[in-house]
Inverse folding.
């Protein structure tokens, strides 16, 4: 009888929550890198067990997912959208009431830059600055041309290809003897870092954080000595037709949760959760390092995170949702 | 509960053990690449030097000399005006649409890859045709090479040799070599046993039988294998670009990530043009030499 008395209000409460949110079928973009996959899995679990959604992960990548969300209204949620990468298109999507930004998935934002391995800086601290690198260009051998030095740029077609190419021009790296190497894919780029690191070879190129690669292979961000010129970066460095790029460090990129307007309007409670759900870079680096060490996929890392960080995620959701998620976790 | 659940669920290996195996093998490979990477890299150095030299040669030679040379080669091989003319036209179109440099880069690496694949593939095919035991070992290997997703072996290769031409060549050859091996084997095995008996009766030694009877008779099948090898090598151009091989694959990758359909189509068509030229020339050459038999 007692349990019945408790169960009735709970039942009412839960139907109330569900009635409030016509959640139904939700598609979440599972981007092809670890942190985004982890966040997507956390979202899936909480939406499915906490909000009673029929949540499904669909494969994604920044540009295709962003475009699909604008043009087709699908998937519903992109949990980790590096919005600088397609700023104009996304801003237009928001203005046309097709998209809505929920919150910052990474509260510190993403870090981009040119990096060198820690062991090189330990040997010669001047390599942490761009002058030191240009002076020691001969160290950074080109894999195919003994007379030139190599600078590993961003893979073909990625947005950072434009910014890293423009900075390569602005820093006069070509005159300094550096050829811009196109690694072709993210796997190619991280593979080249891994290869250099395992053999303590020289490496100089573009990378970004938070990533498992930078968690695992300690790298130092090269200081251009210019500070961050945000206007210059948005108007020229990140633009394809920038004629005279100037030197600037990368401003931290906004990393946001993006939803379609349709979904945000239909499920305000879920949208509220998405606005609160956010990770710090230091925390994400640790999680990525754990994933790397344990070769964990997004869903295993999600379990690990949800079980071990209850204090964090419980702040993102109302108490009754948290209780349901916790119950589902116990049943795993 | 755990004891009885194997009826319903597959008795999986413990996640911890599985993880230990995966981590163990991975770190063993890291050790290996740290230990022997440089030696293996230097083993490929002559090939790399040649590849770089050949690419520079094609890139620095003025375009009209390249076109004249290629057309001359095509004419010598095929003796066909029509084919030579279409080669000139397609290269002019490639140049006009601004794909000359990328096409030359692809041309250089694919020429080397197909020549290497043929040079390695035909002897392996011959070995396979002459020994049933060799065949039973090689066939499953070929199956693996053709079906294993390229990135599964590409990333280990990148860790060992870095990104660029050499891993690209290795990837292309692994994928493209099976047809020429398979069809060389098949062609030789299909040679009529009565013809072979006759050759033996005339006192032909085993080498004479191979080069005088079996290979010439198997030639049409071998050429079909070479054709498939060329086509598959060119279809790997995009995958090779994903590990930093310069060429037509790069703009294709760019167009895939950014949905530049026209850019993708143009560069894709340039790859097709290269494939058709390679194929028609080798087939015409083979047909011409067959005619005198």
């Amino acid at each position: 009888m007692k349990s019945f008395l408790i169960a009735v209000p709970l039942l009412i409460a839960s139907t109330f929550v569900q009635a409030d949110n016509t959640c139904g079928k939700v598609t979440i973009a599972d981007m092809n890198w670890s942190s985004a996959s982890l966040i997507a899995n956390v979202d899936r679990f909480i939406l499915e067990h906490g909000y009673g959604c029929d949540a499904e992960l669909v494969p994604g990548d920044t540009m295709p997912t962003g475009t699909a969300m604008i043009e087709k209204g699908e998937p519903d949620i992109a949990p980790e959208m590096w919005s600088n990468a397609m700023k104009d298109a996304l801003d237009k999507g928001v203005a046309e009431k097709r998209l809505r930004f929920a919150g910052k998935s990474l509260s510190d934002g993403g870090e981009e830059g040119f990096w060198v391995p820690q062991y090189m800086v330990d040997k010669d601290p001047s390599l942490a600055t761009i002058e030191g690198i240009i002076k020691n260009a001969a160290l950074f051998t080109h894999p195919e041309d003994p007379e030139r030095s190599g600078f590993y740029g961003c893979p073909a077609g990625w947005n950072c290809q434009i910014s890293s190419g423009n900075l390569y021009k602005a820093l006069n790296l070509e005159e300094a003897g550096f050829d811009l190497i196109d690694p072709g894919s993210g796997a190619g780029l991280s593979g080249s870092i891994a290869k250099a690191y395992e053999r303590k070879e020289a490496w100089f190129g573009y990378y970004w954080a938070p990533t498992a690669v930078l968690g695992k292979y300690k790298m130092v961000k090269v200081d251009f000595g210019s500070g961050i010129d945000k206007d210059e970066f948005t108007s020229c460095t990140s633009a394809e037709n920038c004629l005279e790029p100037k030197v600037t460090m990368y401003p931290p990129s906004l990393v946001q949760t993006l939803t379609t307007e349709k979904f945000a309007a239909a499920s305000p409670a879920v949208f509220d959760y998405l606005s609160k759900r956010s990770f710090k870079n230091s925390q994400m680096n640790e999680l990525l390092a754990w994933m790397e060490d344990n070769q964990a996929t997004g869903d295993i890392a999600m379990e690990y995170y949800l079980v071990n960080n209850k204090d964090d995620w419980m702040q993102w959701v109302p108490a009754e949702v948290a209780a349901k998620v916790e119950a589902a976790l116990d049943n795993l | 509960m755990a004891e009885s659940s194997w009826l319903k669920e597959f008795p999986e290996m413990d996640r911890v053990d599985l993880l230990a195996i995966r981590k163990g093998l991975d770190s063993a490979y890291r050790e290996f690449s740290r230990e022997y990477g440089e030696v293996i890299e230097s083993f490929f150095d002559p090939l790399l030097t040649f590849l770089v030299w050949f690419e520079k040669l094609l890139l620095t030679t003025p375009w009209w000399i390249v076109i004249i040379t290629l057309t001359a080669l095509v004419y010598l091989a095929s003796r066909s005006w029509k084919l030579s003319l279409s080669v000139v036209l397609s290269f002019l179109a490639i140049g006009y649409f601004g794909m000359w440099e990328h096409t030359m880069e692809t041309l250089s690496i694919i020429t080397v890859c197909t020549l290497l694949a043929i040079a390695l593939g035909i002897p392996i095919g011959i070995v396979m045709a002459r020994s049933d035991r060799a065949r039973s070992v090689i066939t499953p290997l070929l199956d693996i090479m053709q079906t294993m997703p390229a990135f599964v072996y590409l990333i280990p290769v990148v860790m060992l040799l870095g990104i660029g031409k050499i891993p690209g060549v290795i990837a292309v050859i692994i994928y493209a070599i099976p047809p020429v091996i398979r069809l060389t084997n098949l062609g030789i095995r299909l040679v009529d046993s009565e013809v072979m008996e006759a050759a033996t009766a005339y006192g032909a030694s085993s080498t004479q039988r191979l080069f005088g009877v079996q290979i010439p008779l198997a030639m049409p099948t071998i050429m079909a294998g070479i054709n498939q090898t060329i086509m598959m090598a060119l279809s790997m151009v995009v995958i090779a670009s994903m590990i930093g091989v310069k060429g037509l694959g790069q703009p294709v990758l760019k167009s895939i990530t950014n949905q530049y359909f026209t850019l993708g189509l143009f560069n894709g068509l340039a790859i097709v043009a290269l494939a058709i030229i390679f194929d028609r020339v080798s087939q015409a050459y083979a047909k011409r030499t067959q005619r005198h038999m």
In short: The longest strand of chain A covers residues 25-31. Chain A has two domains: 20-109+254-330, 111-237. The two ends of chain A are 29 Å apart (CA to CA). Chain A has a mean pLDDT of 85.
